[in-house]
UniProtKB/TrEMBL annotation:
Protein name: MOSC domain-containing protein
Coiled coil: none
InterPro entries: MoCF_Sase_C, MOSC_domain, Pyrv_Knase-like_insert_dom_sf
Stored Pfam families: MOSC
Highest taxon in the source lineage: Bacteria
Annotated MOSC domain residues: 18-168
GO MF assignments: catalytic activity; molybdenum ion binding; pyridoxal phosphate binding
Residue ranges of the region described as Disordered: 1-22
Length: 180
């Protein structure tokens, strides 16, 4: 099971979108070098306000390029990095991965999946109505979040568009992803 990195992005500011880069360096235990969410403890502003000592389970944000295609078909064209992701992927069903999955990116980097991104109202500030496209409900009324996954960096390394992604599932029983 594997896929490909299609884009990498980062921003040193707490902006909604992140510009694409030729490569990004992942730093073990910290996140994406030069990104505003880099750190051992939480960097997301609303979470810092709640408790700045909580661990940063959101060091790296990954979104599948297939979501961009789905959004474009619904009338919401979105480019890689515009939803704030650091790594855009293709060929891996990110949302179906269990917690603890390890994604081997490029030659050395390893990201452990911690949970789902919980998109907020800022997404409607980017494109009005977009929040309803990435958060919905299934037939049983459960919330479905489609805006990507979050992870922590276990092993650092350079990641570039075109790099392969190898998926290493954790030992069972699998835990479904929850918002982090």
């Amino acid at each position: 099971m594997g896929g490909t990195v299609t884009a990498v992005s980062r921003s040193g500011e707490h902006d909604f979108s992140k510009p694409n880069e030729p490569s990004v360096r992942l730093l073990a235990g910290l996140g994406v070098e030069g990104d505003a969410h880099l750190g051992v403890t939480v960097q997301h502003r609303s979470r810092v306000a709640q408790d700045p000592t909580q661990p940063n389970l959101r060091q790296v944000h990954l979104i599948h390029a297939e979501l961009h295609e789905e959004l474009a078909m619904a009338g919401y064209p979105v480019e890689p990095g515009e939803l704030g992701e650091n790594i855009t992927t293709r060929g891996v069903d990110l949302l179906a991965l269990p917690r603890g999955t390890r994604l081997h990116l490029g030659e050395r980097a390893v990201v452990e999946v911690t949970g789902l991104r919980n998109p907020c109202l800022q997404i409607d500030g980017f494109r009005d109505g977009l929040l309803k496209q990435v958060v919905g409900r299934d037939e049983q009324g459960n919330v479905v979040r489609k805006a990507g996954i979050m992870g922590i960096v276990l092993e650092g390394g350079e990641v570039r568009p075109g790099d392969g992604i190898a998926v290493e599932l954790p030992e069972g029983p699998f835990e479904a992803l929850e918002r982090v």
